[in-house]
């Protein structure tokens, strides 16, 4: 069985697979048991990871996995191109592996243009045209990141509560902050759709922990929670076949 891992800045997702079939999947924070819910009896023959975590955390993950499964860990990074998908970055190693793996999953499904919106710790937007050319993208602060910076970098912005999909002008600090985040993301969402239209791109795909929030805010997109793992699985299978 293959163990596939998407290790983000906030959470870690894992999938156990045989061939294309998913045997088990899980999701957890880094401070929990790293593979909570993992079926103890399974025989893992290969481990492949896509990560954007800091180097010390990546090393800790490697040590944990090698100690637990006694096999080496294969990391997959962003590439300049694969299977007709071409990265716009001059130095692809600088691109987050999650962005490349998400784009690759979307590309091999239809081999048509698409936009991937990954609403995780940070929010990324990547545009790919019908020829498989990555046009480029955006990196924006994520929902928790925006709230945290308002809380910590301004002394008198005091608020509680959770994100609301309401974007009406607020009349309390809490409303101004939470509705403000919604208002900003709604604007960004509209812009994704108009930009895609201008580029002749029809398909919008959304993934990440805040995908549901963006859909609530009116983003018209296909929700694909495991896009990064899907791309990683495909790439890993291709490399194995070489
Ligand atoms: N149960 C949850 N725990 C943590 N974050 C959650 C949860 N549910 C939704 N979220 C939202 O998901 C975001 C994190 O998304 P996600 O788990 O996709 O990120 P990640 O993959 O860890 O990070 P990265 O963006 O670095 O890949 C948080 O900012 C938060 O707003
Ligand atoms: C932007 C994030 C944090 C999104 O997870 C990740 O893709 C990343 O760390 N990227 C590195 C910078 C870049 O992609 O250009
Ligand atoms: K992610």
TrEMBL record:
It comes from the Bacteria. It is found in: Cytoplasm. Its EC number is 2.7.1.33. ATP binds at residues 6-13, 121. A monovalent cation. Ammonium or potassium. Its cofactor is K(+); NH4(+). It catalyses: (R)-pantothenate + ATP = (R)-4'-phosphopantothenate + ADP + H(+). Keywords: ATP-binding, Coenzyme A biosynthesis, Cytoplasm, Kinase, Metal-binding, Nucleotide-binding, Potassium, Transferase. The keyword Transferase applies. Substrate binds at residues 89, 96-99, 173. GO terms for molecular function: pantothenate kinase activity. The active site is at residue 98. K(+) binds at residue 118. Pathway: Cofactor biosynthesis; coenzyme A biosynthesis; CoA from (R)-pantothenate: step 1/5. Belongs to the type III pantothenate kinase family. PANTHER family: TYPE III PANTOTHENATE KINASE. Catalyzes the phosphorylation of pantothenate (Pan), the first step in CoA biosynthesis. Homodimer. This is Type III pantothenate kinase. It comes from Marinobacter koreensis.
């Amino acid at each position: 069985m293959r163990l596939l891992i998407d290790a983000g800045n906030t959470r870690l997702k894992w999938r156990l697979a045989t061939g294309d079939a998913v045997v088990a999947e899980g999701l957890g924070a880094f401070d929990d048991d790293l593979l909570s819910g993992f079926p103890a009896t399974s025989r893992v023959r290969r481990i492949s990871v896509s990560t954007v975590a800091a180097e010390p955390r990546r090393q800790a993950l490697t040590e944990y996995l090698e100690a637990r499964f006694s096999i080496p860990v294969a990391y997959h990074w962003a590439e300049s191109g694969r299977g007709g998908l071409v990265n716009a970055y001059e130095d692809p190693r600088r691109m987050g592996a999650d962005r490349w793996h998400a784009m690759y999953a979307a590309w091999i499904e239809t081999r048509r243009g698409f936009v991937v919106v990954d609403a995780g710790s940070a929010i990324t937007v990547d545009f790919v045209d019908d020829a498989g050319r990555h046009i480029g993208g955006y990196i924006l602060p994520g929902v928790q990141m925006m709230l945290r910076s308002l809380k910590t970098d301004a002394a008198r912005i005091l608020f509680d509560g959770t994100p609301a999909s309401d974007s009406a002008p607020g009349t309390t600090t809490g409303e101004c902050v939470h509705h403000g985040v919604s208002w900003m993301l709604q604007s960004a969402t509209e812009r994704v759709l108009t930009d895609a239209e201008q580029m002749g791109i029809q398909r919008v795909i959304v993934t990440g922990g805040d995908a549901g929030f963006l859909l609530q805010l009116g983003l018209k997109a296909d929700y694909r929670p495991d896009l990064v793992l899907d791309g990683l699985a495909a790439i890993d299978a291709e490399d194995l076949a070489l």
